[in-house]
Specification:
304 residues; mainly alpha; 2 domains; 86% helix; 0% strand; flat
């Protein structure tokens, strides 16, 4: 009887864990809870092993792995702050493994709606993960940098894999996520501009361009709901160009060329979207083009 009660209890915990994974995908990292420097940590990981043994569907396994990856990242950050470099390196490695498991299990989800939901969850979670890892990378001693960089590489790869799947199953959702991530890249540039970190600005600007180019590819390849896709691209790039114009005045001179290149990619996507929209919704295209000219018309003329 006691064994049955224990199994029931652990099952409830697992359900709550999966729910937590969904919430964490859209928020900041959770509290690390019991950390690797605690004598209770071994027990904590043993309970996780029981959780893993009691989940059976790809969806449940994927969500649990994503939750555990997020926990490992929170622990790694905490260990860095405490100066426990070796422990940080170890849990950073565990983070990579859990996130890889999450993405792999996600690919095995049969129900299309659930698969799309999970892919979106990973895209959102890894956006937070990458931001945290970038901040951690600035703080860690040299001997831990490679571990954090590898974790970041796995996070980016997982994000891209899920966004790629989502591009095929729900292009409009993938497009919005790409633009959201690109916008966060611009926020990061703003932060780096204050520190006058030229090389980091250049690197992030390249990442921004990559996200916009992938958005343009989704737009080009989409065969259904074209007008909605064209509107999303035209409006999002207009907003981005406003931010990029501000950044152009904030970054060091050595980084201005990188910002101008990012602007050109955004302008290219915007013009393609507006030209395509004119063929299906000419009045809407005219309305958006007017708004664009009012907001960033002078900037576009300068860059042409």
């Amino acid at each position: 009887m006691r064994l049955i009660e224990v199994i029931k209890f652990v099952s409830v915990v697992i359900c709550l864990a999966c729910f937590a994974a969904s919430a964490l995908a859209q928020e900041t990292l959770p509290s690390p809870g019991i950390t690797p420097d605690s004598w209770l940590y071994g027990l904590d990981r043993a309970l996780e092993a029981i959780q893993k043994a009691l989940v059976f569907t790809p969806e449940a396994k994927a969500k649990l792995s994503l939750q555990l990856a997020t926990e490992r990242l929170a622990e790694a950050r905490e260990m860095i702050e405490k100066g426990e470099v070796e422990l940080a390196k170890k849990v950073a490695k565990d983070y990579k493994e859990e996130l890889t498991h999450a993405v792999t299990y996600g690919a095995e989800i049969k129900d299309l709606a659930k698969k799309k939901e999970f892919d979106e969850m990973v895209a959102l979670a890894t956006t937070t993960h990458i931001e945290v890892l970038e901040d951690v990378l600035e703080k860690v001693p040299d001997e831990a940098k490679s571990a954090i960089e590898l974790a970041m590489e796995v996070s980016r790869k997982g994000q891209e894999e899920c966004l790629s799947r989502l591009s095929n199953t729900e292009p409009e959702k993938a497009l919005k996520l790409y633009f959201m991530i690109a916008e966060k890249r611009l926020e990061k540039i703003k932060k780096e501009a204050k520190e006058e970190n030229v090389e980091e600005i250049k690197k992030i600007a390249e990442d921004y361009k990559s996200k916009i180019n992938k958005s343009i590819n989704i737009m080009i390849n989409e065969t259904e709901n074209k007008s909605a896709i064209f509107e999303i691209v035209a409006n999002a790039t207009s907003k981005h160009l406003e931010v990029l114009e501000e950044l152009l005045g904030e970054v060091p001179d050595e980084a201005k060329n990188a910002i101008e290149k990012a602007m050109n990619v955004s302008i290219k996507g915007q013009q393609e979207a507006l030209e395509a929209l004119e063929k299906v919704k000419p009045e809407k295209a005219k309305e958006i083009r007017k708004q664009v000219l009012e907001k960033v018309g002078i900037l576009i003329k300068k860059l042409k």
